[in-house]
Amino acid sequence: MLLGAVIWVLTVVICYIFLGHYWWFPPPISQHGQFYDAQFTLTLWVTGIIFFCAQMALGYGIIKFRDRGGMARYSHGNNVLEVVWTSATAILFIGLVLAGTRIWAAVHFEEAPADAMRIEVMGKQFAWSFRYPGPDGKFGKTDLKQVNDQGGNSFGIDDKDPAGKDDITSASLKVPVGKPILLILRSRDVIHNFFVRELRLKQDIVPGMEIPFHFQADQIGTYEVPCSELCGLGHHQMRSTLEVMPEADFQKWLQEQAAQK
Amino acid sequence: MSSPIVHAHHAPTGFIRRYIFSLDHKVIGIQYYFLALFSVFLGMALSVLMRFHLVYPDAKVGFFETLWKTGAPGGIMTPELYLSLMTMHGTIMVFFVLTTAPQSGFGNYFLPIQIGAEDMAFPVLNMLSFWTTFLALIVMVAAFFVPGGAPLAGWTAYPPLSAVGALSGPGEGLGQTLWIISIAIFSGASLMGAINFIATTIDLRAKGLSMMRLPLTCWSWFVTAILGLLGFAVLLAAGVLLLLDRLAGTSFFLPAGLLVNDQILNHKGGSPLLWQHLFWFFGHPEVYIAILPGMGVASQLLSTFSRKPIFGYRAMVYAILGIGFLGFFVWGHHMFMSGMNPYSAFAFSVLTMSIGVPSAIKTFNWIGTLWGGRIRFTTAMLFALGFVSLFVTGGISGIFLGQPALDLYFHDTYFVVGHFHMIMGVAAIFGMFAGTFYWFPKVTARYMNETLGKIHFYLTFIGVYAIFTPMHFLGIAGNPRRYADFTNFDFMGKLMPVHTFMTYAAITTALAQFIFLFNLIWSAKKGKPAPMNPWEATTLEWTIPSPPPFDNFAGHHPVVNHGPYEYSVPGAPRDYTMQSDPA
Question: Which domains, ranges and CATH numbers included, belong to chain B?
Answer without folding.
Answer: 28-577 (1.20.210.10)
